[in-house]
Design the sequence.
C-alpha cells in the first residue's frame, strides 16, 4: 500500500484528486492540508511515501515545504501546477513528476507508475498491452505487435503494421515504462521494438536507419547507435 | 550613376525572417562591398573617355587611355571607401521623418567638409598614379594641384548629392521593410487570436450541456480543453509538424468526447516531414471545418484523415473528411479564410490552400515551402 498525502489549497481540487485515486486501490490518501504551514506540520508528524504538492499555496510556495525537510525525510513528490513553466523547480527538487491542472487520469496513472517503481518493484512486469483511448472506447494494443513508436509532441504514434494508434504519452515516459519490454531508442523521436528489427544501416556520418520486418524505416542517430547494437547483441546471444 | 551599384543589394531578401522573434531586429539593406566596387569601377570607366579627351593627348594610345582610367580609379577611391559612411549617416539622419532643418544642416555641413576632403585626396591619389607612371614623383607631378582640387570639388558636388541619395534610399527601404515585417507579424497575431476564442467557446458550450448528461465525460473534455488552451497560449508563431499534429490530436480527442466517439482520426505523416516548420494552429481551423461541416452532420459518424508529406521543397498538409452528400447551409467560411490569409501574409504566393467538396467527402490541402523547424 502506498501512503499518500496532498497539500493543495483548493478543497475541490483535493476532492478531485481523491476521486481520481479511487481508481488505484494500492494508493491510500492518508492526509490533506490546505496551506504550507499545515502541510509542514503534516509532514513532520507523518512519513508518507508519496506527496502531491501544489506549487502555489496561499501562505508560501510548495517547494519551500519540501526544502524545509532534510533530504532523507522527503517523500516522493509529484507537483501539481497550472502552468507548465512552473514545473522547473519541481525537477530541481528531484520530484518524480508534475501534473498539470486539471489533472487527467492518464497523467495521474503515469505518475503513480513512476512512484511504484521508485518504491521498489511493486510495479512488477511491464504490461503486455497498452491502452489506446479514443472517446469512450479503449483499445488494447499488444506491445509485441508494435513495430516502432514515434513522438508526435506529447502524443506517441504506435505503428502496428499499417495502423497508427495515437497515445497521449511523452516518449520519455514510454521509454521508461517499456524499455524493459524490448523497446529501444534509436532517435530522439523514435523507439523500435527490437523484435521487429531486420537491419541496421549506418550512414557515413554515423547516423543511419533501422529497417523493420514490416518494411518501415526508422531514423537512427549516432547518439543511440551503440546502445541499440548492445541490445541487439543481447537478444542474439 | 552610383545608384545603379547600390540597388542590387536589396533584392532576394525573404519577406519574413525565419526566426519569429527577430521581427523587430533592424533590417540591413546596406550595399555589399562588391556592389560598391562594381559601381565605382563603372563610374571610373564612364568618366575615362571625357577625361582622356580633356587631357588632349597628341595622339590616341591604349596606354594613355589606361593611365587615365587608373587616374579615375584613384580619384574615386576615397568616395568608394566612404560609401558605407553615407549609408550610416542617412540611417542616423533620415530625410522626411521630422527634424527637417537639422537634417538639411547636417548634409549641408557634410557637403562643405566631405566634398573638398574626398576630392582633394582623390586628386592627390590621381597625381601619384600619373606621376609614378611617368617615372617620378617630383614637384612637376604636383604642379597646380590647388586649383585642380578646387575645380574637382565643384564638379564633385553632384557626386556628393547622388551618394546622399543612395544612402537615403537604402535607409528608406530599410524602414519600409521593417514596418512591413512588423505589420505582417501583427496581422498573423490578430488572425491567430480569432481562432482561439472561437473553438474555446464552442467547446465550453458543448461541455456545459454534457455536464448534465455524463459528468465523467464532461470531466475528460475539460481536461482535454485545458490542455489545448495551455498549448494555444504557449505557442510561438511557428511550430514543427510534430507539435502541430499533437495539438490537432488533442483537438480531435476533445471532439471525439463531445461527439460520442463517432469520429475516426487517421494520421499519415511521412517520416521526413515531422520536423518541418508550419505556422502554429494552421491545421486547427481545417480540422474544425471537417468536424463541424462534415463528420458531426453524419448520423453514423465518419473519418478525418490528416496526411503530411514533403516533396521537392514543398510541404503538403491534407485534411480529408467524410461529409454529407448534400452540402449543408454554407458556413461563413471564416476558418478557411483565416488560414488563407495567414498563409498569404507569411508566405506570399509561395503557399496556397485548396478546398474541394465532392459528394460524401471534402478535402482541404495546404501547400507551403518546406522549411526545417530545427533551424
Sequence:
Amino acid at each position: 500500500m502506498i501512503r499518500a498525502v496532498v497539500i493543495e489549497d483548493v478543497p475541490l481540487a483535493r476532492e478531485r484528486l481523491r476521486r481520481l485515486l479511487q481508481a488505484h486501490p494500492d494508493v491510500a490518501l492518508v492526509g490533506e492540508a490546505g496551506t504550507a504551514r499545515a502541510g509542514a506540520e503534516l509532514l513532520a508528524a507523518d512519513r508518507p511515501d508519496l506527496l502531491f504538492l501544489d506549487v502555489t499555496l496561499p501562505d508560501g510556495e510548495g517547494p519551500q515545504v519540501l526544502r524545509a525537510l532534510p533530504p532523507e525525510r522527503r517523500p516522493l513528490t509529484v507537483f501539481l501546477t497550472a502552468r507548465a513553466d512552473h514545473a522547473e523547480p519541481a525537477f530541481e527538487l528531484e520530484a518524480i513528476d508534475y501534473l498539470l491542472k486539471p489533472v487527467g487520469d492518464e497523467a495521474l496513472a503515469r505518475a503513480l507508475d513512476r512512484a511504484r517503481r521508485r518504491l521498489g518493484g511493486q510495479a512488477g512486469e511491464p504490461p503486455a498491452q497498452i491502452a489506446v483511448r479514443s472517446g469512450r472506447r479503449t483499445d488494447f494494443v499488444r506491445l509485441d505487435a508494435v513495430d516502432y513508436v514515434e513522438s508526435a509532441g506529447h502524443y506517441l504514434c504506435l505503428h502496428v503494421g499499417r495502423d497508427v494508434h495515437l497515445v497521449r504519452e511523452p516518449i520519455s515516459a514510454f521509454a521508461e515504462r517499456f524499455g524493459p519490454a524490448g523497446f529501444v531508442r534509436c532517435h530522439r523521436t523514435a523507439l523500435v521494438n527490437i523484435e521487429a528489427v531486420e537491419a541496421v544501416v549506418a550512414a557515413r556520418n554515423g547516423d543511419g536507419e533501422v529497417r523493420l520486418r514490416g518494411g518501415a524505416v526508422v531514423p537512427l542517430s549516432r547518439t543511440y547507435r551503440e546502445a541499440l547494437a548492445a541490445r541487439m547483441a543481447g537478444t542474439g546471444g | 550613376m552610383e545608384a545603379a551599384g547600390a540597388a542590387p543589394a536589396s533584392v532576394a531578401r525573404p519577406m519574413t525572417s525565419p526566426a519569429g522573434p527577430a521581427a523587430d531586429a533592424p533590417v540591413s539593406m546596406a550595399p555589399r562591398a562588391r556592389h560598391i566596387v562594381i559601381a565605382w569601377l563603372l563610374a571610373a570607366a564612364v568618366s575615362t573617355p571625357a577625361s582622356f579627351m580633356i587631357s588632349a593627348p597628341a595622339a590616341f594610345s591604349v596606354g594613355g587611355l589606361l593611365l587615365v582610367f587608373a587616374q579615375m580609379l584613384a580619384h574615386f577611391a576615397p568616395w568608394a571607401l566612404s560609401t558605407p559612411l553615407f549609408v550610416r549617416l542617412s540611417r542616423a539622419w533620415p530625410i522626411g521623418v521630422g527634424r527637417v532643418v537639422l537634417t538639411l544642416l547636417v548634409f549641408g555641413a557634410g557637403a562643405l567638409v566631405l566634398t573638398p576632403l574626398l576630392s582633394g585626396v582623390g586628386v592627390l591619389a590621381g597625381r601619384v598614379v600619373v606621376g609614378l607612371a611617368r617615372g617620378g614623383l617630383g614637384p612637376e607631378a604636383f604642379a597646380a594641384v590647388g586649383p585642380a582640387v578646387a575645380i574637382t570639388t565643384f564638379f564633385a558636388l553632384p557626386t556628393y548629392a547622388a551618394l546622399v541619395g543612395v544612402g537615403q534610399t537604402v535607409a528608406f527601404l530599410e524602414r519600409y521593410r521593417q514596418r512591413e515585417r512588423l505589420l505582417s507579424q501583427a496581422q498573423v497575431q490578430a488572425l491567430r487570436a480569432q481562432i482561439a476564442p472561437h473553438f474555446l467557446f464552442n467547446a465550453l458550450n458543448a461541455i456545459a450541456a454534457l455536464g448534465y448528461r455524463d459528468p465523467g465525460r464532461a470531466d475528460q473534455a475539460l481536461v482535454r480543453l485545458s490542455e489545448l488552451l495551455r498549448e494555444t497560449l504557449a505557442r510561438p508563431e511557428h511550430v514543427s509538424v510534430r507539435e502541430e499534429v499533437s495539438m490537432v490530436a488533442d483537438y480531435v480527442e476533445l471532439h471525439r468526447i463531445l461527439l460520442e466517439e463517432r469520429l475516426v482520426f487517421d494520421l499519415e505523416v511521412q517520416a521526413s516531414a515531422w520536423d518541418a516548420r508550419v505556422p502554429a494552429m494552421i491545421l486547427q481551423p481545417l480540422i474544425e471545418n471537417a468536424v463541424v461541416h462534415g463528420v458531426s452532420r453524419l448520423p453514423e459518424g465518419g473519418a478525418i484523415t490528416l496526411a503530411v508529406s514533403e516533396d521537392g521543397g514543398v510541404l503538403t498538409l491534407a485534411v480529408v473528411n467524410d461529409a454529407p452528400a448534400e452540402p449543408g447551409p454554407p458556413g461563413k467560411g471564416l476558418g478557411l479564410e483565416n488560414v488563407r490569409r495567414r498563409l498569404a501574409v507569411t508566405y506570399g504566393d509561395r503557399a496556397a490552400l485548396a478546398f474541394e467538396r465532392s459528394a460524401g467527402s471534402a478535402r482541404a490541402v495546404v501547400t507551403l515551402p518546406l522549411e526545417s523547424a530545427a533551424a
Q: What stands out?
A: Helices of chain A lie at 11-21, 36-45, 62-67, 88-92, 105-118, 171-178, 222-236. The interface with chain B takes residues 83-84, 100-104, 134-137, 150-155, 157, 164, 166, 168, 189, 217-219 of chain A (CB under 8 Å).
